[in-house]
Amino acid sequence: MRISLHPANKWPEHHQALQSFFWEYLAIDAMKKLLVLVGMVTYCRPASIDQ
What does 17-50 look like in DSSP terms, one character per residue? Predict the structure, then answer.
């Protein structure tokens, strides 16, 4: 009985960890895109001012 219950007990924890990892990955991806955008704006701005 314990063997059949063990995976069922383990699954919600695993699912929760996977979900939190997924949201953390999304947040990191969004931060990277934001940094790239800010970097592009700051890189392109002096060139447009010089011209």
Answer: HHHHHHHHHHHHHHHHHHHHHHHHHHHHHHHHHH
Per-residue pLDDT of the chain (51 residues; tens, 9 = 90+): 455 555 555 656 767 888 888 999 999 999 999 999 999 988 887 666 665
Question: What total number of domains does the chain contain?
Answer: 1
Name, in order, each residue with C-beta under 8 angstroms of 37's C-beta and a sequence gap of 6 or more: none
Residue written as tokens 């990892």?
21
Q: How far is CA 49 from the centre of its chain?
A: 35
